[in-house]
Amino acid sequence: MYPAVVSMTQPLKEVLIRCTQKHVLMRNCSTGSIGLSTFETLAIKIPKPFVYNVELNRPEKLNAMSNTMWLEIRKCFEELSMHPECRAIVLSAAGKIFCAGIDLNDMSSMGAEIGEQDDIARRCKVLDNKIRTYQESISSLEKCHKPVIGAIHSACVGGAVDLITAADIRYCSKDAWFQVKEVDIGMAADVGTLQRLPRVVGSASLARELAFTARKMQAAEAVQCGFVTRVFDDKESLLSGAIEVAADIASKSPVAVQGTKLNMVYSADRTIQEGLDHIRFRNMAMLQSEDFMEAVMAQATKTGPPKFSKL
Question: What residues are labeled active site?
Answer without folding.
Answer: 102, 159, 162, 182, 190
